[in-house]
Design goal:
Helix content is about 55%, strand content about 15%. The chain is α/β, with parallel strands linked by helices. It has a five-stranded parallel β-sheet with strand order 2-3-1-4-5. Helix 1 crosses helix 8 and helix 2 crosses helix 4.
Length: about 170
């Protein structure tokens, strides 16, 4: 059995896309926390933020993480804010290998600028909000077993890099 792999990182770093490719290459099961939350609630993430608020969403996100983190042989793509909770960070680190995907702000903005499903960026100045959130969370993403820079790399290459990092750790 392989240990679980948790993909963390700021929004737009490719956690879901890379997670699917990583699961495909390793034969592991893939779980996307945001997708599970949408299925459980019947609402989009934006609708949850509007109707229930960010605090409610974060509580649900933590409980979905707790439910899915057990066992082994899973690749779990987390939401960008899951690392805000020390309990979540500890749960991931004690339940598997945490890999933080990172990118420069230009890459992230280019990936997100046309997105309509990022509730934290639905403000008058999304670039400033993006910069502020990025700075607030940057140190928390470093609390991982591995950090992988995704700028200019395909999901396949990123997944291969993750596999190599994990294999060299053994």
């Amino acid at each position: 059995m392989r240990p679980n792999i948790f993909l963390t990182g700021f929004m737009g770093t490719g956690k879901t896309t890379v997670g699917k490719k990583l699961a495909e290459l390793t034969g592991m099961e893939f779980y996307d926390l945001d997708t599970i939350i949408k299925e459980v609630t019947g609402l989009s993430i934006s609708e949850i933020f509007k109707q229930k608020g960010e605090a409610w969403f974060r509580q649900l996100e933590s409980s979905v993480l707790a439910e899915t983190a057990g066992g082994s042989n899973k690749v779990l793509a987390t939401g960008g804010g899951v690392i805000l909770s020390p309990v979540n960070r500890n749960r991931m680190k004690s339940s598997g290998i945490v890999v933080a995907l990172t990118a420069n702000l230009e890459t992230i903005w280019n990936r997100l600028k046309d997105s309509s499903d990022r509730p934290l960026l639905e403000e008058n100045n999304p670039v400033k909000t993006l910069e502020r959130l990025y700075q607030q969370r940057a140190a928390l993403y470093k609390d991982a077993h591995f950090i992988v820079v995704v700028d200019g790399k395909s999901p396949f290459l990123i997944a291969r890099e993750i596999i190599q990092l994990i294999n060299t750790k053994k």
